[in-house]
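Problem 12. The chain below contains 385 residues. Write out its predicted structure in token notation.
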Amino acid sequence: MSPAAFASALSCHPVTSQATGEVVGRVLEHGGDRPDLVVVTVTRPHAGALEDVVATVDALLHPLALIGCAAESVVATGAEVEELPAISLWAGQVGPLISFPLSATRRSDDDWEFAGWPDHVGFVPSAVLVLADPFTFPAAEFCADLGRSRPGLAVVGGYASGSSGPGGTRLALDDGVRHSGAVAVLLGPATEVVPVVSQGCRPFGPLLTVTRVERNLVLEIAGRPAMECMVDQIAGHLDRADIARIEGNGILLGRCVDPGILDPGPADLLFRTLLGVERATGALSVDDRIPLGGTVQFALRDADSATSDLDLSLGGRRADAALLFTCNGRGARLFDTADHDAAAVGRSLGPVPLGGMFAAGEFGPVGGTNFVHAFAASMALFRER
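Solution.
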């Protein structure tokens, strides 16, 4: 039987060398050696030996490119291993690609310079996978910069969640390990890469127009004080159980990213948290800049909403393999069932090779624009052309 184009494996053995041998052996068995791309994620008990993991994978699989990191928890086919020893290994024949490190230098308060992007690519890229250090790499600014220089190119990935402080992040790239910046792989057109972002929100009420703003303060919605409008939307569209959840989960405001969309749906809205209310003015403080005249909708986020949104985001899709970067605030912290997001991928796509991690911020496009998300699940779905 010929090797499959994609393969993945998971080991929960506490000894790093044993766990590495197990995942490499399974990938060799199902996918063979010399894959184009390998993604390896390890939990904190294996973080100190990530160099050994990378060296073994490189020596036995001989991938063209390797990317990975240490994370709080890892993802594999049908499984999520949270805060226990685990190694997840994913490999695929994806065609031409380029791996490279990224670094960021602050030039002023709102201005960053990014270095490392390859000067000559040689193919039309389909997407870029990025794993980043949350302490040294401003991913939101990087996404904005990339949107200006390479509009339409999807970014999928996330912040490494394996360290609680600066200097502790461990990022793998090819045959080495880095502690800052970001690592990336630019994917070519040979394999179809479809980015999918589930923000885990349930919109309620109608779409509304912002009629007065000031920086990140929304002063008026539909010609009324924003707080007054929000209270009316809650009273008119939520039941008592939903209202009770607001205290623990808060309210979100979604804005349509593309003003050209006449009838935006949930997938076209970028949801951001309401940070507070100015009772004197009735203004809403939002973790975003909402443009004047923008279309917005209020939303809730809870376990049921996150489940239904993920199923909806994956519904009707097909893939031969997938990478999943899910928020470290999901998993057992949000859901009552184990392996929640990995199981949802399996329900929709079948038992396809799956890899990834729990991230400290997820990267993915909404409405064709890349953003850094919280409490989201960002995925790259791979299909052989």
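Discussion. Residues 202-298 form one domain. Students who got a different answer should revisit the alignment rule from Section 12.3.
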